[in-house]
Every structure is written in structure tokens, then in C-alpha cells.
Amino acid sequence: MVPLITGREGALITATSVECRYGDEVVLSDIDLAISAGDLVGIVGPNGSGKTTLLRALTGALQPTRGAIEWSRGVTVGYVPQVETVNWFFPVTVKEAVLMGRRSDRRVPWASPAEQEEAHALLARMGIDHLASRHIRQLSGGQQQRVFVARALLSRPQVLLLDEPTSGVDIRTRHDLMHLLHELHHEGLAIVFTTHDLNGVAAHLPELICLNRKIIARGSSREVLTPAVLERTYGAPMEVLLHAGLPVVVEAADQYVDEFLEEGEHHQHAS
Amino acid sequence: MIVATLAGLLCGLVGTYVVLRGMSYIGHGLSHAIFGGAVASFVMNINFYVGAGVWGFIASLLIGRVARRRVIGADAAIGVVTTASFAIGLALVSRHSGFTRNFDAALFGNILGVTRSDVIVIALVFVLTGALVFLFYRPLLFTTFDPEVAEASGIPTGAVDALFSLVLAATIVSTLRILGVTLVAAALVIPPATARMMTDSFARMLGLSMAIGAVSGAVGMYLSYYLNIASGPAIVLVGASLFVLVFAYTSMRNVSRRPLPV
Predict the structure, then answer these.
(1) If you measure CA to CA, which chain A residue comes closest to B158?
(2) Shortest Cα distance, chain B CAs vs residue A116, angstroms
(3) In this structure, what is the dihedral angle of CA atoms A214, A216, A220, A223, given to the nearest 10 degrees?
(4) Which of A22, B21, B62, B173 has the highest CB neighbour number within 10 Å of its CB?
(5) Given an 8 Å threshold on Cβ–Cβ distance, is A108 in contact with B134?
(6) CA distance B91 to chain A (A)
(7) Residue B129 CB coordination number (10 Å)
(8) Which pTM does this prediction carry?
């Protein structure tokens, strides 16, 4: 198994009063956040709530317009983008994609034998080493996701940030991916990822952040998946039930949906 | 023939990044923009390579700057900057009759009229570009494939883009006198586009693109001598023929691989 353990005490990344803008539009404001070793945090919020922007700021790729983000000394951050943003027609094999993640200062195009070995070990761990020479487009959705996780892990990060890793995958693939993330977390990696899946993913996480341009709440799923917090986050009424000790979010009855259903019944009777 | 082979190698190398960055149109536009610089340097009596090089680099930086305004977009930015620059060149040509003699050479290239200094410049640009691609292989590849994640991984993508603009401008300027304004773009795009159809690996595409560029240059020169046709079009036509052959072969292979309907 590839060693990934780099756990340490204290905050690895600290955001203080962070504000991010795109032009005049404020996308994030008053973000105070610390990511520490041992964290496994999910970020939930509606479309346009600033989830991806927050992740990009935490990687250092995006400069906040106000406030500051600090990384503790020597911290490496691995980033896994949304698969929808990947250029699938780019000529790159699985192995070439993973080796992009190497951090060494080698000034030659080819990877060292040690880097090659590590890339193969990571691919083997992801169960896709036999696909190393395939083009990335020839893989299934779950396998593609694993290629980019392997690329991020090759840089031996202490923090792994993933943007919507569970979007557009089936239940089995989602389950496998969550299993992998839990495994990496147990090895000491701090993991932060965004998700839209409140019941299938967010409810099972030890910690959640509800985001809508500001942090609305942070806590365990039972603490934050409440009707009041969800309405402030999503701007829509939601009901929360408990099933096997876990919260289950259901959409509250909506007057427009009711009217639509009534209209449908009326048409049925008329015909 | 050596110059044509070198020009093919250089264009095949740089063209791989041009095509994969979705910048095929920039090669076309920038060669036209540099024509403006070539004429201006002739009128002002400045060395061709210095005048056209500086002009080309500024034009490619300007395109990047204008393209960042989202309401305009990259294609319109290239259209505005390069056509304006080309128009400056044409305006200067119409005022200064002395340039007319070289006008055809600049537009369509004249490989038989290349001087010793042209050969030295193209050899230098090829060696420097090759060294840069060798030394910065991973940052260049990562920035071309996925600029956002490359930035997040600590690669200074802005500096990599500026370096690439410089390399692209130098490539076009050094091959302009050989291939001409209208054919530089073809030499930048055809070899990598052909190579892309032959492989799914980036490293192999880079090598194949350079090989196709070099073969097009050498065979094109040979044919231009024996068939008595202009060298620029001969080089490009050899490249285009290879493209058609590979396109036909890969299309047939894909059809034969497709499973029959049940």
C-alpha cells in the first residue's frame, strides 16, 4: 500500500475573513475556516453558492479579494476537479495523466523509476493499473474519477480537495468512491469535498459545511441538516426525517407542485 | 532541404501545443499580425527578426489581454488584433512601393531566397524551443491539459502562457520567410492534427507531429524541385496529403471495428 500518512497537529489551512469576487459580484464573504489533520468535511449548498470558488481559494489558485488564507509550513494540497471540466479529447493516457501530479524538480520530461513505481502502485490501489496505457476517455465514470484522485495523491498531499466527486455516478460507484475516501481519511489525509447529494453522501459524513456565499453552519450532519439551516442555505423549505439514526432530507410540500398535481388530476377526470 | 526539414520539425513541435490549446486560429492570425511587423521593420529600416519578433510577441500578449474580457471572447480578440495588425502592414506596403518586390515572398514564402542568417535563426529557435520543451515538459503539458488544476498544483500558469506566446511568436517569425504568411498556419496545424489521429498518447503525438512536419518539409522541397512548383505550397500539400491518408485509414479502421447491429 502506498504510504500517504502525513497527519499532524493543528490547522493545515486557515482562512480568515476571506472574500472572493468575480468582477463586481461577491461570490464568497466572511469565510472563517480551518482545515485540520483528520478532518473529513463535506461542503453543501445550492448552485452558485461558491463551493468551487472556496475549494480553488483553499488550493491557492484563486487570490481572495479580502482576508487571508494561510497554509501551515510544508503543506501540500491535492486537488481533484469536477470530471465535467476535463477535456476528454486531449491525447493523454491514464499513466501520463497520473504522472502530471509528480512534484519533483527533475528537469527531464520522463518520470524517474521511483515516480513510475509510485504511479503504478497508486493505480493498483485504485484498481486500474491494468488500464495504465488506455486513453482516459476509454474508462468508466468511476475509473476516470480514480485517475484524478491518483494524480492528486502522487504529490503526497496532506489535504485532498475534491470538487463534486460523486456527481453523475451510479450508486455502486458512489459507494466505492466514498469507501476510498474514508480509507484515505483513516490513513491521516484531511479531506474536503463538495457535494449536492444530501442523503446519499452528506448525511453519512462526520462534518458538514452549509455554504451560500457565507458559511451558514458547520457541524455534524445531525446538527446542520435541520429545516432551519437548510432553508437558510437553499432558500427553499425542506423537511428532515430520521432514518436509522441519520437525517433524511425531503422537499417540503410546495404550493406550485400541488397546483400542478391538481391540474393533472383535473385533466384526467375531464378525459 | 535542411531548412525546410528544420522548419517542419519546429512547426510540428510548437503546433502540438497550438492545436491542443484550441489555438489553431491564433497561428493563422498571428502570422498575419507579424506581417504588419515585417513591413513596419522594413519601412523603419530595423532588422526583420527584431521588428517582427517584438511585434508578434506584443500582438500575442494583446490577444490574451483582450480575450480576458469575457464579453469579447478569444476568437473575436484574435480577429481584432491580428487583422488590424495585418491592415497596418498592407497600408504601409501601399505607401512604400519599395516593399512590393518582397511582398509576394512575405505572403507566400520563398525558400530558395533564404540567406545564411535565416538558416542560423531558424536553427537557433529550434534548439531553444526544443530545450524549453525538454526542461518545462511537465508544466507545459499540465497547463495545456488542465490549467486550473495546474495552477492549484503550484505551476505558475501565467508565466508558462507568456513563455509559450514568446515561443510561438519566435516560431512564426523564423519560418515566415520560408513558408510565407498564409502557409505558416498550415505548417503549425496539419502535422499535429495528423499525429492526433494516430495516437492517444501526448508524448507519441509530440514525436509523430515533429516527424510528419520534417517529412513534409523534406519531401515537399524534393517535389518542388522536380515538379517546378513553389516550395511553400509543396510542403503544405505533402502534409495535407498525409492528413488525408491518415484520416481515411483511421476512418476505415473505426468502421471495421464497429460491432454489427444485432
Answers:
(1) A61
(2) 14
(3) 180
(4) B173
(5) yes
(6) 38
(7) 20
(8) 0.83
Q: What pLDDT band is residue A8 in, cutting at 50, 70 and 90?
A: very low
Lowest-confidence segment of A49-53, A192-196, B53-57, B70-74 by average pLDDT? B70-74
Place of cell 512547426: B11
Report which secondary-structure segment, H or E, holds A209.
strand A207-212
Residue B89 CA to chain centroid, in angstroms? Answer: 20
Please report the ipTM that was assigned to this predicted complex: 0.81
pLDDT for res A67: 93
Minimum Cα–Cα distance from A80: chain B residue = B149
Please indicate whether, in this complex, the C-beta atoms of A92 and B202 are within 8 angstroms of each other. Answer: yes
For A44-82, write each residue's pLDDT tens digit.
999 999 999 999 999 998 899 999 999 998 899 999 998
Residue B121, CB half-sphere, CA atoms under 13 Å: how many?
19
The overall average pLDDT reported for chain A is 86
CB contact under 8 A, A92 and B134: no
Q: Within 13 Å of residue B9, how many CA atoms lie on the same side as its CB?
A: 16
- With an 8 Å Cβ cutoff, are A91 and B148 in contact? no
CB-nearest partner of A91 from B135, B154, B200: B200
Closest chain A residue to B22 measured between Cα atoms?
Answer: A90
Would you tell me how many other CB atoms lie within 10 Å of the CB of residue A73? 5
Please report the pLDDT score of residue A253 as a whole number. 65
B-chain residues near A93 (CB < 8 A): 200-202
As a whole number of angstroms, the longest Cα–Cα distance in chain B is 72
CA gap B221, B231 in Å, rounded: 6
CB-CB under 8 Å, B138 with A91: no
Q: Does residue A2 carry a pLDDT above 60?
A: no
Give the CA distances from residue A116 to residues A100, A158, B198, B200, B205, in Å, rounded to whole numbers and listed in that order: 11, 21, 25, 19, 20
